[in-house]
């Protein structure tokens, strides 16, 4: 191997003269077999009549692998098209997404790459020593903002042209956009969340203008919003982690002072944030009860930040396109949106939306890597045939495809539910499902995206690891999906809380609806899959009955497995339901079968193994913190 590389280098640089010299050298110092092997790996190297080889002519050899090509992501997505044909069969939607898909390929995807290669920078002082705290973003990032307004990527959710299906339409568009967006999907998520919060609290006073800007299609008027919750003491635990103090002003506004530890897309025009209102003596109420929600424009008329010092931009594993800053709030002018102490409850609407966006980005990343991987498998030949003709390679892609399909249907179902809620058509059951499944989808798809995209990188072999293919950035960016908007464990605990708060009613809705998805007009070929979902549901019910009489710590240890079980069972039911629709394809049925072959209810099996027993925590801790006793 080493000798063949050596040969290659010499031949490439100096042509056949050096080659034959090294060949003579090798002939003397190695066995004849080895030399023959080395020669065989360079079949093109037969000298031409002019005495040159193909390598010397081409400089670096004649073979270049065809790169994976992004094609119109809408046309490439059979499930997306099938889903829309079933639920939103509108010619206008079809043609808009078709045209948008073309725009993504020919225009936007290149900007997305530019956002990655030209990350934002912070200019703290101007040439004359004045503090300016300017976040400089790439032209591509700014074009993304214009495009987002023009394409109505936030506005669609509020115009509601398609009634209860408007959110589905909006999220389908974002799903196509997200992997090409250079992470502009991040500010859009927060912008959408902020608009939703303002709308739900009633648009009035200073938020009137903010709402119309956030939901505008006019690039010159459109605003984006930040969501500043995390402080140094806590992102998950904002109740005890928030130190920001809000000082009331005589005109009814506030001045905020504190330190925000993570603020993404800090080039935003406004933000929603949490703080504690101080009384006349400067005292604040501790815990979540002391938190209120504030709205703050970030910049003044001159475009300068006001009452803010940008301490630095974070140096991150991924999402490098997005400026994420640490901010000192030093008297930031703000308006209180919630009643005093109702901040956490009021920002919940924002989190619902940002978690849905997160899930959309997760499934979009999976779909994009698959589209590229399957294109590559057509053109990359190994062992005498294209990758797509190697059964084991196709099996690997199939597993990724099945994960992606399950995730897509779950996420779209949540978009369907929020669309129903926003148009006043949600039943109690819909409301329960939305509340339960939003964190479930966020936590599950975040993990799926990391796994699927990681596998996807491997499907390009070594090239999947090479930076300027653009592929590694996809994995880096996916890694954040399980962290921001709530980590996997924190959301799993949230699922438990939401079950407890409704005294289990939310679970009843889950069981009723999941059962109904697999109850009627099911394809006979899917009976095995139906049995799997059915038995997983029964197992889950029994588990929950048992868990109800266990010691308090039992469910806490089971929380993540429980959330995974809720996700997998529901995805199985959705896949079966979709495959049984009259317009479904045979692949839809096959995907449902394959999904339901896996362990659908891990919480039952782990309970049977004793994973959640009281002594488990002590044993786990002893294992994790074991120290070596060897000298
Ligand atoms: C790139 C990036 C951008 C971000 N942008 C923003 C932003 O714009 N605005 C914003 O407000 N925040 C932002 N964040 C912050 C992010 O939301 C938080 O980092 C995240 O919510 C986790 O909070 P934490 O860092 O305080 O971790 P911690 O809460 O300290 O968590 C540490 C670990 O403990 C686990 N854990 C915590 N509580 C429990 C529990 N009860 N049981 C079991 N395990 C638990 C967590 O799962 C995690 O694994 C961003 C983060 C990143 C990485």
TrEMBL record:
Source organism: Dallia pectoralis (Alaska blackfish)
Protein name: Uncharacterized protein
